[in-house]
Structures are given as C-alpha cells and as structure tokens.
Amino acid sequence: MRGARVRADGTTIRWVELPGREPTRVYVHGLGASSAAYYTAAATHPVLFGYRGLLVDLLGFGLSDRPADLDYTLEQHADLLGEALIQAGVRSADVIAHSMGGAVAIVLAARHPELVRRLLLVDANLDPLPPDASTGSARIRSYREADFLAYGWDEVIEWAGAHWAATMRLAGREALYRSAVHLANGTRPTMRQLLLDLPIPRTFLHPAADGKPDGAAELAASGVRVVPVPDCGHNIMLDNVDGFAHAVAQALTA
C-alpha cells in the first residue's frame, strides 16, 4: 500500500500499486466502495496485467483518510486525486473509473488534462438526479446531514445489502453523505457536458441488459465509444470479470 499527503495537515490518499510498464492505469471506485475490492481481479487479468496500476481510494473511502471537515464535492475529489497522482509520478494516465468515480474522473480530465490520456467510464454518473430518483446517492441525499449521521447511516447500511455494505463501512460518514449529495446534484457544466467536450479518447461501458444509456447517440457523435458488456449489472467488473477485462483492454489499445 502506498500513499500521498494531499493536504497540509497530512491527510493521505492511499492506493494499492501493481508494478508494470507505462502508461499507468488508474482505477477509481464508486460511491461507498474501494478500488482494491472492486478492481483487483480485473486489473490482474491476463489481458490487462503488466501495466503499472494504481487502485486508488478517494479521500473519505476505503484505505484513505476520512477527514470530517471536507465538503467532498466532485471538484475537490478530482483535485485531491490529481495531487496524489502527481506525487505518485503519474502523467498522462489511462483512467478507468466506475459510477461516482467516473464523475470524478471526468472532472479530473477537465481540470487536470495533463494527467489523463484516455478515459474509460464504467456505468458512470453523467447527469444530476431528479428529486424522485431511487439510486443509492439519491437515497442518501434524502436525509438531512444531521439525521444521516444520527440514524440514516444505519438505515442505509441495512438497505445496501451485505456486498455494498462491506466497503461502505470503511467510508467516513460525512464523506459518504456529502459525496452522495454532490454526486446527485452534479456539476456545472454537467459531467455529461464536460465529457462531450473532452478532446481525449473516451469509452463508456454499460450493462448490455440495461440497453443503451441515456444520450448514447450524442455521446457517440462526440467520439465517445459506447460499449455494452453482457452478463452483468452495475458492478460490471465484479459481475463479469472476463468480459470487463477484455472490453477495457480493447478500449485502451484502440
């Protein structure tokens, strides 16, 4: 395990590093997750293994520190991740990012273009969520922060189920709540618009069973490759390791 101090008080982002050749591949998890738990099987798959890989935990999650005094906006996540990558000697990386991590990766590529050469989004959040949305981040957003910290955390952990809860328990409660709120509210311009405007190779993986993602034609028209992956749900890299690994390998060598 390695780490980088990303704030003056010593707050540290940590990652599991796989040795290998360049370009570096940076793996970023989703809300309430941890990159090592979600990506290790895929990152060490024969078609992907051999490149330097950083399985990074965003601040507030997994192995990284969980300060309670951070707003945890998508922009803060991106800037702090960027600082960790700079300290790790990363330049022009291939960034593979799932769900909320995909939203952070889009902002990272827009704000720190020297750090990202290719972007591979895994069923990532591209748009703000309506008030009646039923996703995990919207469910968390439905609480006031004080209520979430008092009792909402326990309710969400129970609702999330054993698999998601296993990594969600590692998250700071303030980090989970505030990240969920900012993810559900989105960015300005939206993550989708930022993605459309990026001048780098971009791929969007999605579960084939869900059909084409919203705005697929617009994504394709802007040069984003939209790729369905069979036999999986939202957690593509866990549900179909082989299919995910081959889709990533193809996207990063196209």
TrEMBL record:
Residues 26-133 form the AB hydrolase-1 domain. GO terms for molecular function: hydrolase activity. Keywords: Hydrolase. It comes from the Bacteria. The keyword Hydrolase applies. It holds the Pfam family Abhydrolase_1. The keyword Amino-acid biosynthesis does not apply. SUPFAM superfamilies: alpha/beta-Hydrolases. Gene3D superfamilies: alpha/beta hydrolase. Coiled coil: none annotated. This is Alpha/beta hydrolase. It comes from Rugosimonospora acidiphila.
